[in-house]
Amino acid sequence: MAVSTITPPRTDDWWRSAVVYQVYVRSFADSDGDGVGDLAGIRERLPYLRDLGVDALWLTPFYTSPMVDGGYDVADYRDVDPMFGTLADFDAMITDAHALGLRIIVDLVPNHTSSAHRWFVDALAAGPGSPERARYHFADGRGEHGDRPPNDWESIFGGPAWTRIADGQWYLHLFDPAQPDLNWRHPEVRAEFEDVLRFWLDRGVDGFRVDVAHGMIKAEGLPDVGFGTATTGQRQVDLLGRARLPYFDQDEVHEIYRAWRPILDSYPGGRMAVAEAWAETPQRLARYIGPDELHQAFSFDFLDATWSADSFRKVIDTALAEATVVGAPTTWVLSNHDKQRHVTRYGDGAEGLRRARAASLLMLALPGSAYLYQGEELGLPEVLDLPDELRQDPAFLRTGESRDGCRVPIPWSGELAPYGFGPAGSELSWLPAPATWRALSVAAQAGTPDSTLELYRAALRIRHEHPALAVDAGEVTWLPAEPGVLAFSRTAGTTALTCVVNLSGAPVAIDGYGEPIVASAPLTDHLLPIDASAWLERR
Ligand code: BGC
Ligand code: MG
User: Fold this and answer.
1) Which ligand lies nearest the alpha carbon of 180?
2) Looking at CB atoms within 10 Å, which of 55, 396, 493, 495 has the fewest?
3) Residue 11 has pLDDT above 70, yes or no
């Protein structure tokens, strides 16, 4: 097993080509045996991530929270939930990470607070018309008795986006009722988050992942959408990313980022922000990125691409064209904590795994940065058969759809669940790992030549070392290929690296493309099997 000794780029724009590993904190590593992952657990496992060859970690929220939405309901933005540790644990973790050359991106949740946040508690107590209520969206209901919601907006998690409280007023929550939306037209809200940014920048974070970055500004007057589940049977959320809703992607949201950027830029070392933003077109998404706004925005079209050469080719071309326009490289992602894992999306079982490995190799050959989701380097599938009573995603109760299956604690070692997730002898994990994961643990895969873990390690090592994959190496040049096959090369000087992906139904000859240096499936007689990718080199 080769261990990477590469130091990540030290330049201020390290993020342009970074491989960022998403840590879903409560499911990564549990240091104290309570069945929940924590910051000390991450700290212990940093050498694993260094050896994997990633450049940075993105940590999902670990702040004080009632955990109604897995921590995306923040009660105190400046503290660590006791479940995850303490601020001292955070400081120790980031110090170690930096010493290992790993950068740390934290999640910022500005669209809404927890209903347990002091501001919301005060707002409830203060009553209608109070300054405390002005920080959120409180309104009177419609109808003679005010017993209908103020408008027709729907929660992303299902049902109306409004909840009525005892004194008769309603408040807005685009997600769970435990996540009231802040009023970003209020100066105190803006000042507060600028201060929260500084709080974490002062603690040394290298960047932020901005949650619901398209959501903070609501259209003036909170106008109706005009249709929805109640009237037309079509859920408003299904239009996310296809139409402009009055609660998303409003022009004034960009003022917020124009205020944040100078704050990020005032710190040394290249502090960055990546938007989780959904917009109607790639052009509107691009408006979040630039020298005076955020550095990156996730390109979810790649994640949404279906298993076909045309589908991948189209999203890649669109994303690359967009990157040229905004002058920032694309941000590729195949899996995260909100989406079904890509092994399962591509068919599950052996077929899904084959395709997932091929797609990962494709992603890692593209210019730009790549966001990996914990466990994808182990080829983990979605857990589809969690008992309903164990599911914790608030969306599950409201819509029957649950994101718990991609959030199961990852397997590290050993014969018994939860496979080394906790300290020796600990049997607890907040969601149970399936028995099949014994064979997928880090220990089971490390040093095993054809394992998914070793594939990721090899690909990440080459990605760091190979001049043709460097940040300023050549762009993507598509090469002629058989139907159903994608082939592109990138070059640096006289060296070319070609990535071939076989999405056709038959093995394909690849000897014309160069010498294979890594492949997602064994190559025999210079044939790339179906559902496989290879990188080939020509010097
Ligand atoms: C996060 C979700 C979360 C939601 C509300 C999303 O963008 O990724 O996990 O439920 O925001 O904060
Ligand atoms: Mg723990």
Assistant:
1) 1
2) 493
3) no
